[in-house]
Amino acid sequence: MYGKCGKLEEAHLLFDKAPEKDILTWNALMTGYVSEGQGLAALRLYLQLEHAGIKPDKGTYFRAIRACTAVSALGLGKRIHEAVKEAGFSTEMSIINALVDMYAKCGSLKDAHRVFQESSNKDVVTWSSLISGYAEQSDYDTAVELFQEMQEEGVKPDGIAFLSLLAACAHKGLVIKGLFWLRQMRDHYEITEELQHYDCIVDLLGCRGLFDEAEDLLETIPFQYNVVGWLSLLGSCKTYTNLKVAKRCFDIINGVDTDHTTSYVLLSSVYTKAGMYREAEELEISRRDKELWKKTGQAYIEVDNHIHCFSADDETHPQTAGIHSKLELLNLQAKQQGLLNDGVYLDTIPPVVQQDLFCRHSEKLATVFGLMTVPRDAPIRVAKNLRICTDCHQAIKIISKIEHRDILVKDIDCIHIFSNGSCSCGDRHYQSNSCTNAH
């Protein structure tokens, strides 16, 4: 009960006081942590369970796999996968689906496809998990091929399958194809649109700068209090510096929820992008006066089956001095190579931010730690609990070019694959140039 209510401190206190704990007790607490997005805490609990010699059941493995997904713990996920095989649960549908999803969201589509192919029994969730994996890496063509193959195999798509397909369109900015699949879902497959489907289209329209169409959709869909959709459009306003729509989105959001922190953060970023630094600071002061605190950004990286967690300006890590020194060196190399004067990297960054492009945000610290510890022939995998910010996105592009490394950063939006100075997302939410090709 405490776990499902998000009261994890109370849940853990009760757990610690329990004179006896069976596997259901462990599973209940793990469920709470996974549900609240605290994958690292859930994995620590799983490892504690292992160390205590308690035999996991199918539910334990399922929760542990989901926890690995949250923090992109690919190495630990593979170890749990082997334990699943030894325990005889590898043919269980819920485990198969969790594994496909875990490997896909860790950016290892090869492993996801292997589990998928080895399974003799695939349901719509299995297919949707793999389709979603390709969508998150902006591979629309493969996502559509899998969608069609799924139907050829006699598996009927559901709303989640279409959501994965719409996400593939959104990650590539394919407006016409996105609208086509939305109509197909409703008219051909007779699946009723849900709020998530509409929000995906709003994100797609906003990404392409089609603000009138996005607003019309939000105002006419049969759902009230759609804060997520208006937030998505507000986020798109930063890309195009659309102050008029941004203020309107902000007012609508706060008309529904007067204490919505994210709306303050997003509008402040639009002001900053427009060079309206005084207005941005006034909004930030207003947010702090109302005690609307930002969610703490955290980045995770797994090295030798140990998960390292970083926060902005983190100085708690044992290798902090080396990480900060390496970050300063990268900043110097970027200046020497002229990358900090290159419009390819800086056109989307306000001047006030350009001065500190290599600041100590969590994802930069995790990335630099990866440079120091992950073998050169292996990609660096980082997970972020929020969307990667614009300056970090641009900085990691530069780092990938300087270091000649492939860097994967999974955030709440997609999987960014940085290589040789570019990103697989196509800078969808990080560019100021208007895109006219909506196909």
Word description of this protein:
The chain is α+β, with helices and mostly antiparallel strands. It has 22 helices and six strands. Strands 2-1-3-4-5-6 form a six-stranded mixed beta sheet, sandwiched between helices. The longest helix has 17 residues, at 320-336. The model is unreliable at 432-439 (pLDDT under 50). This is DYW domain-containing protein. PPR repeats lie at residues 22-56, 123-157. Keywords: Repeat.
- What's the mean pLDDT score? 90
Number of strands: 6
Beta-strand percentage? 5-15%
Secondary-structure-based class equals alpha+beta
C-alpha termini separation = 48 Å
| Helix share bin | 55-70%
Task: Itemize the secondary structure elements and their pairings.
Blueprint: H1 8-17, H2 23-35, H3 39-51, H4 58-71, H5 74-87, H6 93-105, H7 109-118, H8 124-136, H9 140-152, H10 159-172, H11 175-188, H12 195-207, H13 211-220, H14 227-240, H15 243-256, H16 261-273, H17 277-289, E1 298-303, E2 306-311, H18 320-336, H19 343-346, H20 351-354, H21 362-373, E3 380-384, H22 390-403, E4 407-410, E5 415-419, E6 422-423
Parallel strand pairs: 3-4
Antiparallel strand pairs: 1-2, 1-3, 4-5, 5-6
Keywords: Repeat
GO molecular function, one term: zinc ion binding
InterPro entries: DYW_dom (IPR032867), PPR_At4g14850-like_plant (IPR046960), PPR_rpt (IPR002885), TPR-like_helical_dom_sf (IPR011990)
Q: How is this structure best summarized?
A:
With 439 residues, this protein is α+β, with helices and mostly antiparallel strands.
